[in-house]
Amino acid sequence: MKPLAPGSRINHPQYGKGVITNATSQHYYVSFIESGIETIELESEFEVIEALNYELDLVSFYEVETTLRHLLQRWSDITPTVKIADRWKDGTMVLKPKQRDLAEKEIPIDTFFHKIVMVRDRLRVMEQKINSSKELDDTTKVDLQQYITKIYGSLTTFNVLFRDKDDNFVGERSK
Fold it and tell me: What are φ and ψ of residue 55, in 5° steps?
């Protein structure tokens, strides 16, 4: 059976009569007279009272947007905004040399944090390029991946700067 477009009327054995209000690649969202809005699978058993058909693929805007966002994050330098922990916002990092006659260097923590995030994101891109490479053999890929994991481990010191734990560097984990 062809997919039913929104506006189609059906009679479901469990929910009764209703109108399809939205459709995805797997489900119909139906407003039933007796039970309100329910989600049913496309293959569900029901009687079609009035069918409205269309030739479009049943993919919602949300599904397209989510898939596109995932692909862009995975295969480009575009990354989601990473937030610095509140306690470090507008702070300053001071580097003091051992020799007292040399000047201190002050760096805004936000600037330093931005550079750390850029390093992390470029490591991720490099990791993806290694994993998808057709020129590298599997042994070389594993070796390079182990180096990258060790680099992540070396950078875990900076996790204190991240607001969200999901943004942290993760090195080798104990098993």
Answer: -95, 5
Q: What is the pLDDT of residues 19-29, one digit of tens each?
A: 998 888 788 99
- How many Cβ atoms from other residues are within 10 Å of residue 109's Cβ? 17
Asked if pLDDT for residue 12 goes beyond 90, the answer is: yes
Q: What is the DSSP string of 35-77?
A: TEEEEEETT---EEEE--B--S----HHHHHHHHHHHHHHHSS
CA distance readout (Å), 67 to 55, 57, 71, 124: 22, 15, 6, 19
Answer yes or no: pTM beyond 0.70. no
Closest CA to 81 of 163, 6, 7: 163
Residue whose token pair is 């009327």: 9
- For residue 77, count CB atoms less than 10 angstroms from its CB and return exposed for 0-12, middle for 13-18, buried for 19 or more: exposed
138 is written with which tokens? 């599997």
CB under 8 Å to 11, separation ≥6 — which residues? Answer: 17, 18, 46, 47, 49
